[in-house]
Amino acid sequence: MRLTFIIIYFFSFLANSHEYNKNEVIIDHPIIKVSSADSKIGAGYFKVINNSNEHLYLREIVASISTKIEIHEVIKQNDIYKMRPIKNDLLISPGESLVFKAKSYHAMFFNFNRILENNEMIKAKINFRNNLVIPVEFKIIIGQVNNSHH
To answer: Which pTM does this prediction carry?
Structure first.
């Protein structure tokens, strides 16, 4: 019985996990969390792993589902978290990773152009300097906006 539980847990984890790989750069488990299906904004979370020997500079995220996407950082001032759009590309050094998560770096998707469905996959591109573009699909997660994912 215990072995069965472990096997089911392992395969359910694999089924819920998705990653994209190009030029030794991995985008792991991109998701967009929204409060409801008709939300107009959502937060995007994922992990970028730089397995290359080159410095990697994340520039932008592009998706037709949203009219505007910004990469934000969260800073804490006087015990208050404040969200700010970043002005420069984000550096990921060789062998390093950057995690987009709650109360940290994340992508803000503004003005969704239609109703979203839970577990729906949304096509996007994550663009880096030097013309590196990694096509991904963000999984929509409805109703869990305050929970940290990674």
So the answer is: 0.83
